[in-house]
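I have a small job for you when you get a moment. Would you make up a two-line entry for one protein for me to read? No commentary is needed, just the two lines. Write everything out right here, beneath this request.
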Amino acid sequence: MRRRSISTATALAVLFSSAALTVTAAGTASAAASVAAPGGMVAHAGLQRVFVADRSGGTITAADWSGGLIKRVSGVPGVTGLVLSDDGSTLYAAAEGSHEVVALDAGTLAVKNRWTIDTTEGPRGIAFTAGKVWFSYGDQWDGNLGSIDPDWTAPEPPVEPTEPPVEPTEPPVEPTEPPVEPTEPPVEPTEPPVEPTEPPVEPTEPPVEPTEPPVEPTEPPAEPAEPPVEPTAAAPAGELSTASEEDGQVRMGLSPHSSLWYDPAVLDTDPSSPGLLAMGEAGISTGSVSVLDVSSGTPELVAHHNGNYSLTYGVNDVDLVPGASQVLVNGNKRLSYANGAFADAGTYPTGSHNGDISGDGTVAGFLGDAISVYAPNGTKPLRTLSTGGDTADVEWAPDASRLFALVGSNGTYTLKAFTGPKLNVPTLTVSAPSKGTIGTKLTVTGKITATVPLPAGVQLKVARIDVASPSGKALPTVTAKADGTFSFTDTPAAGGDVVYRVTYSGDAKHTPVVKSDTVVIPRTSTSLTLNNNGKVYSYGADVTFTAHLGKTYANRKVEIWANPYGSDKPNVLVKSGTVNSSGNISAVVDMKRDTTVTAVFKGDAKYAPKTVTSVGYAKVKISNTVSGHYKTGVVGSHNYYWFRKTKDALISTTMSYYPGRSERLDLQIYYNGSWYSSGSEYIQLDGSGKRTVNLGSPGEAGVKARVRTNYINGSSGDNVNSTTYGSWKYLYFTN
């Protein structure tokens, strides 16, 4: 359909804003077109564009055939509907916020014209047919109809073609008085200006036929035979107007109904029925429906249903049905019309409250996140499309090759394009045995059906996917029987998960469809070992890990992975290759952290995959320096740092860095031939893994002490290394 207006059932309050238009163009990579409050949508075949209106922003967006943003203009306040002219050159918008109809160039979105509508409510619905723009307007119980003639030009003043209506020597006749003869006394207002039996006027006077229009073009015209018609006044609120073709470019009060409607109506036209206009009474549950003939410019009723719940229950949307004397209401209810009345013609079981109908009569009704597509008069959907969100509006491409939907999520409605919307989706099932054996024949069965009949002798492609053919091995094509059932046999040569994939490529009326089923075929287990599990190594040691692979069928490849402890280090493939003649493969791992080493055999056609792990542990690197002493010397069996009894002893530590790591400092005192603990303390290292600690001084001579720093797995702030104890540093305090 060429018109799309937003339903009043979902209408939001609109903001009054400036009428000036501003333009936003898309970049080279277009984002999806979106709006905050849908205000109508229409598709343009020639330009392959979709125009989408935003009520709250007062904008109109042009999108490409894929839904990508091309251009956006603002300055159309409270826009509630869009429609294209018959030739597609002009886009018309109902701007309810500023009470205007705005004409824009469809190619550039530049404003061509604006018409102010004399109303406090509307225009809301908008449509185009018979060379005119039709719009609905009016407050409660004052819903009416108006039109705009875009090609209208102001008429010349109401005078005769070449001469004034009286002789130049005579004063003009007042328009409110009956016409008079130039030389005769005035005619009484209740009498005709010239009696049929009177003789013609004197040759010196303008000739006048007694009962005919004024004189020939070469002579001065006679006065009109009838009194001039007073301009038709606008009808009072609540009454019908008697607008005529002389009202001007914008005509209002054109509703032909015996009483005005509750709210501005939803409108629709169809190119296959030029001159017809459908109206639906919105905003009230009864919902009257009409079809008007507007080809003459003055609407005349073709059919009317006065809402009484017998045929409708609330009208959100109306669509003229192409090629039939029917109206589609709310995307699901068909009403036929004949002899001025409507009758029930069937229902599409969509459950929708809105929808659209294509030029060939295909219907798309939506509810929530589902769009149901029906063939004309169909009882089962051709296809059900999932939009992934709350659907607010749909619009067919004029050739029905695409269906556009505005889909809401988190307060934004995004334009989505669905290709092949009329194609029926077949139902395909595939059933294979759950288990099998290598070298043993098995049978796979299935069935393909569709709500739209499939061609006879449907051909199905079959492929087997297994470890020997991971990209799939084509098997003979299978033909479905008349009832859609099929079967085939195969003898698997490899074990593991064997997938049988069946594909229907589709046709002119059906989408492609693919289904598969899996057979589990057991494989023999092989042996795989990995050395060095549980061993502890010094920091930075290069450790060789060796994997040994047992008997296999064809694959002799093994991978060795190293995964250091800590989330900051990834699992790394250290080596991948074929084992040697002894079945071994080795890799060197730099042990700076505890590391999980993994050997992986991925299996082959007859032997199952296998994975083994080995954990190697790595100590940290610790170094300590002592400062503040005046000499070193041996006391007993240890080398001591000698300090004056009042001199502070400083211990500096450097340890392998890890975020948040702490050292544990142990201090012991020598007394009566034994070492006694003076305490332990965890001290956090800096960003380079260093820290200097002041141990103080005892203040007396003869004191012997020793100190060391350690890393304790789990207690030093992390667990990426194994517990490591530093060496003791011996201190001796003298005079």
Q: What stands out?
A: The two ends are 107 Å apart (CA to CA). The chain has no helices and 55 strands. The first strand starts at residue 3 and ends at 5. Confidence is low (pLDDT under 50) at residues 7-29, 175-246.
